[in-house]
Amino acid sequence: MTIDFRTALEKRRSIYSISKESPISDDKIIEIVNHSVKYTPSAFNSQSARVVILFGEEHNKLWDITMEALRKIVSAENFPQTESKINSFKAGYGSVLFFEDESVIKGLQAQFSSYKDNFPIWSQQSSGMLQFNVWTSLELEGLGASLQHYNPLIDDDVREQWKIPAHWRLVAQLPFGKPTEAAGDKNFIPVEDRVKVFR
Amino acid sequence: MTIDFRTALEKRRSIYSISKESPISDDKIIEIVNHSVKYTPSAFNSQSARVVILFGEEHNKLWDITMEALRKIVSAENFPQTESKINSFKAGYGSVLFFEDESVIKGLQAQFSSYKDNFPIWSQQSSGMLQFNVWTSLELEGLGASLQHYNPLIDDDVREQWKIPAHWRLVAQLPFGKPTEAAGDKNFIPVEDRVKVFR
Which of A11, B23, B89, B93 could form a disulfide linkage to B177, CB 3.0–4.6 angstroms apart? Predict the structure, then answer.
């Protein structure tokens, strides 16, 4: 059964309980990420988004890096809770890392100086669109995922580990895997309090 | 025929040539916007997005406001080009205005001070997701739309015209209408230059 765009929006949820299995092949995951990267719009079609996909041991390394970075700043008393959280992400099958290429943004700022202050903002908005599209596309294939933000804490270690160009700025991390628990209930503010219509 | 999520991503384009017709009813447009507002995620489920939908004369007013604001800052020599651009948006059927509620963001900053600097960034990312979802949902119904950014130039006039709360910050404008011309070709950077895989 084909699921339409609107139903896809409804089905996407944060899935925190994931395992080291995938209902689809690694090549299919890569193809899905590539597709979202290609078709997500960006200011002036600048295509500033960059992505790293980590599978297996490479995925484990990301969460080991995150764990060690947190160990340095979280108190011993609070660390067990942190450890358990990071292990829940490490328990997944892979991770997608979202970056924005600062050299592209600086290029736009130099070329179109009257929009100078806007390009970093539009870059964040475009990255959000991409994060959502990858997240939703993966979940439609039976994977579970959630969006995490351990940047800038892990930026230097990530850059060093995978030889990421210095001008790629980490924006978000999406650990994914086969869901082992469904998402809980979600609360919604009445939409009437959020949308005004004038006609 | 049901169009799936991925095909929907491919079909969404910037449509600049639009008319004062709509293939769907105003109520259907409102329902579509409400749906995206409800299901687009936000940091900590804060639901900080706010939206204004303008139809008919209210839509015309938005672009009149924008025209007059630009007339004050664009040289007489360059104004004909600006005028023609704004008139192309005014030629549409309606506009969706995207806001973020600053009071929600400040509330999060007060409650979770260690993420203080991140909430405004996550708000931009979430707004981007919503802009994309509304844009794509409307185009799937046969409307054409493009994302515009005349904020902060028009913020005060918009706030006054529609009695918008002072803590709603304008982020983007999406004029829409029946497409009168198809989108042109789009250039793509090779995805291999944008995505790295480690496995």
Answer: B93
Per-residue confidence (pLDDT) for residue A115, from 0 to 100: 92
CA distance A17 to chain B (A): 17
Assess if residue A107 is contained within a domain: yes
DSSP letter assigned to residue B137? H
Q: Are A158 and B5 in contact (CB under 8 A)?
A: no
Reduced to 3 states (helix: H, G, I; strand: E, B; else coil), residue B143 is: coil
Averaged over B14-19, what is the pLDDT?
Answer: 98
DSSP letter, residue B50: E
Show which of residues 167-186 on chain A sit within 8 Å of chain B, judged by CB atoms.
171-172, 186
What confidence score (pLDDT) does residue B1 get? 73
pLDDT digits (tens, 9 = 90+) for A60-106: 999 999 999 999 999 999 999 999 999 999 999 999 999 999 999 99
Residue matched to tokens 């449509």: B15
Q: Tell whether A40 lies on the interface with B, counting CB pairs under 8 A.
A: yes
Distance from CA of A112 to the nearest CA of B (A): 14
Range of the domain at A107: 13-182
Report H helices in A95-174. 102-111, 119-140, 155-161
What are the distances in angstroms from CA B120 to CA B18, B69, B158? Answer: 33, 27, 22
A117 lies within 8 A of chain B by CB: no
| CATH code assigned at A99 | 3.40.109.10
In a domain, residue A5? The reply is no
- A199 falls in which pLDDT band (50, 70, 90)? very high
pLDDT at position A1: 73
The pTM of this model reads 0.98
Q: What is the ipTM of this complex?
A: 0.97
A to B CB pairs, distance under 8 Å = 178
Number of domains comprising chain B? 1
**Tens digit of pLDDT for each residue in A119-164?**
999 999 999 999 999 999 999 999 999 999 999 999 999 999 999 9
Structure tokens at B184: 């042109």
**Residue in A3, A5, A193 to test binding to B, most B beta-carbons within 10 Å:** A5
